[in-house]
Hints:
The complex is a heterodimer of chains A (627) and B (384).
Chain A: H1 15-27, E1 63-67, E2 69-72, H2 73-77, H3 84-92, H4 96-106, H5 110-116, H6 120-124, H7 136-146, E3 168-172, H8 176-187, E4 191-195, H9 204-207, H10 216-228, E5 232-234, H11 245-251, E6 254-257, E7 263-264, E8 278-280, H12 281-290, E9 299-303, H13 307-318, E10 322-326, H14 338-346, E11 350-352, E12 355-362, E13 368-381, E14 387-400, E15 403-406, E16 410-411, E17 435-436, E18 445-448, H15 459-478, H16 482-489, H17 499-503, E19 513-519, H18 542-545, H19 558-567, H20 579-583, E20 589-590, E21 600-601, H21 611-615, E22 621-625
Parallel strand pairs in A: 2-19, 3-4, 3-6, 4-5, 6-18, 8-15, 9-10, 9-15, 10-11
Antiparallel strand pairs in A: 1-22, 7-16, 12-13, 13-14, 17-18, 20-21
Helix pairs in contact in A: 3-4, 3-19, 4-7, 5-7, 7-19, 8-15, 12-13
Chain B: E1 2-6, H1 7-17, E2 22-25, H2 32-44, E3 50-53, H3 57-69, E4 74-79, H4 80-95, E5 101-106, H5 120-123, E6 131-134, H6 138-155, E7 159-164, E8 172-176, H7 180-186, H8 213-242, E9 249-252, E10 259-263, H9 267-280, E11 285-290, E12 292-294, H10 298-305, E13 310-315, H11 325-335, E14 343-347, H12 357-369, E15 378-379
Parallel strand pairs in B: 2-3, 2-4, 4-5, 5-7, 6-7, 10-11, 10-13, 13-14, 14-15
Antiparallel strand pairs in B: 1-8, 6-12, 9-11
Helix pairs in contact in B: 1-2, 1-6, 3-4, 6-8, 9-12
Amino acid sequence: MGFREKSSLFRMDQPEKGRKFMADKKRSEMAIKHEFKSYRDITSMHVSLGNMLYNKTGSWRFIKPIYEDKIPACQNACPAGNDIEGWVKLLNNMEYEKAYWHLKREEPFPAILGRVCFKFCEDACNRAVLDDCISIKELERFVGDQFAPTIPHPELPENDSQSHKIGHLAVVGSGPSGMSAAYFARLLGFEVTIFDKEALLGGMLRLGIPGYRLPGQVVAAEFEGLSNMGIELRPNTEIGKDIPMETLTTTFDYVFLATGAHRSLSMELTENSSCCRIMSALTFLKQVARGETVALGKRVVVIGGGNTAIDAARTAIRMGCQATVIYRRSMTEMPAHPEEVREAEEEGVIFRFLAAPEDIALHADATIEKLVCCEMELGPADESGRCRPIRKEGVTFDIPADTILMAIGEKPDFEYLSRRIPTTDTIIHTQEDFSVSSDYPAGAKVFAGGDITDIPHTVVHAIASGKRAAIAMDCDRRGVLFSDVLNRIRIGTGTAVSFSKYMNWAPVNPVQRNDQNVVDSTKIVYDYFIKTPGFEKSIQPADLRKDSFEPYHATLSGEEAIHETARCLHCGRCTECDNCLIFCPDVSILDRTRETFGYAIDYDYCKGCGICFTECPRHAITMVSEG
Amino acid sequence: MKKAIKGNHAVSYGVKLSKVGVISAYPITPQTTIVEELSEMCASGDLDARFIKVESEHSAMAALIGAATTGVRTFTATSGNGLLLMHEVLHWTAGARLPIVMANVNRAVSGVWNIWAEQTDSLAQRDTGWIQIYCESSQELLDGVIMAYKLAEKVMLPVMIAYDAFFLSHTTEIVDIPDADLVDRFIPPYVPPVSLNFDDPRMFGGFFATDYFYEHRYTLQQASRETLECYPEVCREFHRVFGREYDLVETYRTEDAEVILVTAGAITSVSRIAIDKLRDKGESVGLMKLRMFRPVPVDCWREVLGKAGKVVVIDRNLSVGLGGVFASEIRSALYASTHRPPIYSVVAGLGGRDVTPEDVEGILNHVLAHDKPSDEPLFWGLKQ
């Protein structure tokens, strides 16, 4: 048969493509005029007489697939932009050491966050639609526990080989925000000194979080690691007392303030507030952490509904006391993490909801007799969105108590700044790069992070702020605007930035990646995944764990970890499953070779049908419109 | 080697011996056991073929169109409703001149559900350009598949092997399975007239406008008619190699027969018994078994039936509003003959209703007793 000119081969509404088509055709050898004289000239199989190379059927396309990795929902939910999918993949390949260092690129302290993180990632995990979310926190702990933080850091720059100015950074406060800023700044070539007024470094991690949730030695080991990286540690050194703030601003190029919120709020419930058995829950936790003796008596009442209240109550239980938490709203409104609340209940902590303290009755010897509480009811929602508690006037009840712990919130202490940095009662105002305006006479640029800034008060948010500030300080010393860099390093739709992106480190999948495109569950093709529930987390029973400050559940075993990693859907990340390759009707997904990862798309022949996009189980292909 | 196997498995063995490279199918009763057996052969490595699972019969045939275009030997099997779903692509296969072989297990087509024997499904595909061969025994099935490849690749037309649901598909018979070497010699590897070449890409199945489409259809008609010349050659060669004889039709005691009965498929076997019985009683009756139905072997039919006083056609099928399809086609074929015997059209056994030797005897007695056929087809065994 003969090839016939086909005007139908291009879209009439795309004259440009049509003209190009005809031009190509004229140039080709195929522009043969062939006339059949008889039916006998028609061969059996109907094939064109000439070759069709000129006819790039890709010209019919008006939308095209793009092969690009994206941001999984878990990574998007992580304030630190932890590349969870990346290290989970490495872990699944049993490449433990690679997984460890990959994890630390965005989140330097896996042994810590693997124990105490509020796991925003798991709440966002797309696997939950199918069965259970991946136990990312447990996996992170597993990775963190595989290696001592003291092993040499492979990505640490050598100071003397740096062409740029080194930069001296003082970090005030050794909590998660300060640790993070110090870690990342050190990787960027800064010389870093961490100051902390406490003998035990780690801020809230060490002093506020009880050992059964985060053992002190885990925190201590991280500081050994930081010290091994060449970071100078100055415990027992209070800025504003041992060293004036002005000295820091004159001797350092950068100062990062991460002093946290350690000043407990209090309420006047008795004229005799000097009574030693009425104290802040945080002070109590710190005393226990330092190993000091605290006399509690038998009955402890904790006022408040946050994590500090829960930590204090559970610590009291471990010291052999009865503990009651009173909270003026209901369980639903409680700011404490639900898992912590559930475990506290299991251990025997009594919760009295809709109760507000009104008075503390004392014995004649000025010891506490009881806490008088007023019953509350919930009114309409207030500006925080939670129901406002309203007193039921005159309806009171008593809770017998020997010790009363106040856990109604903490505030920062800005005394040491001598009002040279503008603050409110609760925060220092920072820019998007966490820089702070100050009127110190000389030198240092000041940044701030963690609980003294306007971010959620969690460990992972603190770590994220330290990372962002370290990058911002590096930009500053290089004379680059942070705002110009921000778009390049931003991860997902939240506030997370990527240190890897800033350093131009290659992702685990060496393919193009769109870091703003988040893959949520609507984009996952669940038909391709088999239901496999997560492992049963083995927690020590409450009656065993409530007598001990030891952690009450073990790090995952290797088998458990691999079971979990195998469940990862790898949202938005190509796993070379070959679905696109198999389904492409135009043979336009080009096979990987042994040397390179992933696929290429042959746009000469891809007609933009979108089957690869539809059949990709994990949304590693996007369709974009053309022309 | 002789083996007791079911009719469907005889097809599977035929496919295996024909060294088919791509099989694509969608399951449907009563066909399923053919491809089940084949998929096991593929899995065990007994058959070096790619088995493509698809989501419908339409896709099964579409997949084979692609595969056959690359120059590989291909096979699929279906039945009843599955065949109807393929209808569009059946036209394409023939038009594109792809030598695909398909087994169709004749199954009643639904209004109400029925999975038993009836030939209406394949007869509804008679205008698609496919060669159609109706078989009666398991041996004929196995041999038929092998011959089908030989024929298809000679004339570049697809071949459908049709046979009765359950009566044949699920009945065990002794089958002589030929040596693979002999089959290899009979059908050497398929060499397509055109092969795909990535460095020299061509367009397949392109566009024919009004100026040549007509000629294209004519070439299809030519090819189909040429089949009638090629087929006896294929049969002769098959006979030489394997010792078994097949032809466009098969006759039984027709030489001097006054009444010739025409059947296709499994009814033929019971009809032989009835013929023998009536012959014993002194009646002059014979039997012609239809094998090839498309293309229509007009000359052959005229030669066998042109001498008969009466022709009876039993149709296990119904062209609604007309009657039996075979009767109608035979009537047209004989119309131009010098001698035009009256055609008695009998519709029997629809939806798998058993047609026994007694039924056939009854039908023949009815014909012997009536000088003229009725205007309407006779619905034999109808519950009145």
